[in-house]
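Slide 14.
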Amino acid sequence: MASGFALNGGRSRCFAFFQDLQKCYLTADEPNTVCAPFKADYLECLHHRKEVARAKTIAAKANELRAAELAEQARLEKEGKALAVGAVLSRGTASESA
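Slide 15: predicted structure.
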């Protein structure tokens, strides 16, 4: 935490986490072990590493599903059983052509 102030002059977004961490360090007998969760929360607020890792994992899974869907569609087209794109029946299921 460089200055404790945000760009507009108010408190920074992580100031509350910093205060919790500081209070823990001042009151704990063994701050390295007791205050580890507070430190993790503060560092996550500053750097968003867990959030970024989760977003990357979700994007990778979505890409895998999209690739599998395209592979399945290509397989069906090769067999001559292509699914109609955008064709929706009244029950909400896709119809098959051919």
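Speaker note: Residues 49-79 form the longest helix (31 residues).
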